[in-house]
UniProtKB/TrEMBL annotation:
Classification via PROSITE patterns: ABC_TRANSPORTER_1, ABC_TRANSPORTER_2
Domain ABC transporter stretches: 2-219
Keywords assigned: ATP-binding, Nucleotide-binding, Translocase, Transport
Protein name: ABC transporter ATP-binding protein
Stated family: Belongs to the ABC transporter superfamily.
Organism the protein comes from: Spirosoma soli
Stored CDD domains: ABC_MJ0796_LolCDE_FtsE
Listed GO MF terms: ATP binding
InterPro entries: AAA+_ATPase, ABC_transporter-like_ATP-bd, ABC_transporter-like_CS, MacB-like_ATP-bd, P-loop_NTPase
């Protein structure tokens, strides 16, 4: 599904060079639920961005379904992200001026999906996360857990094969965090491949496999 070979990521400024990822080799198989852990600043989010084709590695190769992504142009990469990958962010990234339903529809707008099917798919995604009664609300009217469920609905509305979640329970209390994990596990049981960055050992134990990073290096 996702294969990383000898991945290195270096950030450079005029005065400093920072090695964010160092010789990362990973193979995420179809249907896996994998967690990534490590101290703050160890490269977890950078690794997730490389997997999600948001950030290009300085060295090494990324393969999606056996195909090297380096061969694709920017428009093709954008299409791959839109059609195959769903992103869940810790800070939700919802648009406050749009309703819950409109927020969830956004990925389908980039696919030029027609109005009625787009709305039907967004409503179905919200039903999956238990928010069918909040479709007309705005983000400011929701709790943190509800906002995260909207973010999950937006991530899954296009039926992606891969879901990348960056600290999806990080801003939530333990009860709501467990609810979010239950939703992610249900999505995984339905066939989604999930990679999740987390600081929570208990959440990580609920996934199939744990990857640890330290100072940008994979801990074996």
């Amino acid at each position: 599904m996702i294969t990383l070979k000898n991945i290195e990521k270096v950030y450079r400024t005029s005065s400093i060079e920072t090695l964010a990822l160092n010789n990362i080799n990973l193979d995420i198989k179809k249907g896996e639920f994998v967690s990534i852990m490590g101290p703050s600043g160890c490269g977890k989010s950078t690794l997730l961005n490389v997997m999600g084709l948001l950030d290009e590695p300085s060295k090494g190769s990324v393969q999606l379904d056996g195909q090297p992504v380096k061969q694709y142009k920017d428009k093709e990469l954008a299409r791959l992200r839109n059609q195959q990958i769903g992103f869940i962010f810790q800070s939700f990234h919802l648009i406050n001026d749009l309703s819950v339903l409109d927020n969830v529809e956004i990925p389908l707008l980039y696919r030029a999906t027609n109005g009625r099917p787009r709305r039907d798919n967004a409503q179905e995604a919200l039903e999956k996360v238990g928010l069918s009664n909040r479709m007309k609300h705005f983000p400011s009217q929701l709790s943190g857990g509800q906002k995260q469920r909207v973010a999950i609905a937006r991530a899954i509305v296009g039926n992606p094969n891969i879901i990348l979640a960056d600290e999806p329970t990080g801003n939530l209390d333990s009860a709501m965090g467990n609810e979010i994990m239950n939703i992610l596990q249900d999505l995984n049981n339905d066939g989604a491949t999930i990679v999740m960055v987390t600081h929570d050992e208990q959440m990580a134990k609920r996934t199939h496999r744990l990857i640890r990073l330290f100072d940008g290096t994979q801990v074996l």
